[in-house]
Every structure is written in C-alpha cells, then in structure tokens.
Amino acid sequence: MFNPILEELNYSIISHGGHQLNVEKRFQEYFSKKKDTVIRSFLWDVPGFRRWRVTRMDAGDKLQVLNSVAYPNFSNEQPILGIDLLWFGKKGKLVAVLDFQPLIQKDHYFRRYFEGLKTLKKNYPEFYSNKEMNLYDSKQYFSPWVLFYVGDGNNLKYSLREVFKDFLDTYWLINTLPEQNYKNLTPNKIKELHISYDSYNAEIDPAHALFKSYFGKQWADDFVQEFLFPNSINRK
Ligand code: BLA
User: Fold this and answer.
1) Which domain CATH number covers 18?
2) Residue 122 lies in domain
3) 174-200 pLDDT per residue, tens
4) How far is residue 115's CA from residue 178's CA, in Å, rounded to a whole number?
5) How would residue 1 be classed by pLDDT, with cut points 50, 70 and 90?
6) If you take atom 24 of ligand 1, which residue's CA is the nearest one?
7) In this structure, what DSSP letter does residue 90 have?
8) Domain count of the fold of the chain
9) Is 39 in the pocket of ligand 1 (CB under 6 A)?
10) Does ligand 1 have an atom closer than 6 angstroms to the CB of 63?
C-alpha cells in the first residue's frame, strides 16, 4: 500500500539534495519475535534540515505504516513536516495524517507558512476529518489545516499518492517564500520548541504501545526515545 508513497518521498528528498545516512543497526531493521513483521528506518541528510527520519513498518494485511518527520535547522522557524500513514488492511481502515506542524499557534506565523496547505485542504475535502483527535491535542503542534483522514481506504476519491505528492510539493514551496517583515523566532527558541515537540510526542505517541506488542518493551522504549524523538531525552 505505501511503497509507491515511500518511493515518492525518497525521490522528492533526493531531488532536493538529500543523501541517505546510516541508521544504527538495531533500528535499521528489526523483526518481531514471530518474524512476520518488520520495521525499517531511514535517515536523510537534507540541505536546510537537521534531521529527516522515515519509518516503514510491514505487518502484512494487519498493518502497514509509513511515518516521517522532518526537522528544519534551528535557524529556520518553518513548521516541522509530519507524516503518519496507517493501513489496517484486514479492516480496510486508513488513517492518514499530513501536516506542516507549526512551532507556534500565532496568526502571523500561520499567514506566513500555511497559505499553500490551506489551498490544498480545499482541493481535498475528503481529508477534512470531522473526527476529533482523541489522543493528541489538535492545538499543540497541529495546524488548523491538517490533512486528516480516518475511514475506508478502499474508496478514496483521489489516490493517496496524488495527495501526498501535492502535499510534499507544497511544503518545499515554503523555502521560496520571500522574507517577511516581522521578528522571526530565535534559534534558541526554535530549539526549545523542537525539544518540547519531541518530549510531547514521546509521551503521547500511540506507536509505543504498538511497538511494544510487536517488538517487546525494551526495543519499543529505545526506539521511541532514541530514534523517533531523541530530543525527548535530557542529554545535558
Ligand atoms: C494515530 N499513529 C496513530 C495511531 C497509531 C500511530 C498506531 C492510532 C491509529 C488508530 O488506531 O486509529 C502509529 N505513530 C505511529 C507509528 C509511528 C508514529 C507507527 O509516530 C512511528 C513510526 N503522528 C505522527 C506524526 C503525526 C501524527 C508525525 O507520528 C502528524 C502528522 C499524527 N497519528 C497522528 C494523529 C493520529 C495518529 C493525529 C490520530 C490520533 C488521534 O485521534 O488523536
């Protein structure tokens, strides 16, 4: 289900100057005890970004996952790119969340970085879920224009790949926005907000319970803290 989307993502990263980095062996590829599920992760060095991670989990027709987060450099206040795609094949249920994850919830910030996503959302009304988020706080690190779909994955009006490509292309356009005449967030503030993003997500992410059930508690703890959200660990 998500291989073509992963290809789209890789192609897009490479065409923006990205190079693949090594991932620590224990996180690069890991099999469940039953050997019927595998999780693979990738890291990219992309100009303008301090970390770009991608994770693909394959549990057959039980579950497929494609998850990615791209953190811009601390000198750049633009939103974090957030991608979470889950396909529960047996049930035919798709959960798709695509967002420019805002560092702050301020009008001037939204006006500067979210015009593209706003337009995109109008083009894909199906991705306007009227379902409330029940785990996450939609006002914390989510934008009002988050593309959010929960439901039947077999009868989507548009191909997910098309929506995904449009979404990525729109994110890259942020880099081409002209300078604005207001005070940007300082690198120190940006760093603080990235750290708080990781801490918040490490605590709340439903992935932990999922990983625990497939890969055991120790691996799940390590993966969430050290690979998914490394800034959640106080390294001072
Ligand atoms: C939901 N994400 C979920 C769920 C799981 C994951 C199991 C619950 C799905 C359900 O049963 O309905 C899984 N999350 C993962 C996995 C990883 C992960 C496997 O991080 C890591 C590999 N989540 C993100 C990012 C966003 C995000 C970047 O990681 C933002 C784009 C959003 N995931 C998100 C949202 C929900 C979700 C909004 C719905 C939960 C809710 O209703 O609050």
Assistant:
1) 3.40.1500.20
2) 3-189
3) 987 776 666 789 999 999 999 999 999
4) 13
5) confident
6) 84
7) T
8) 1
9) no
10) no
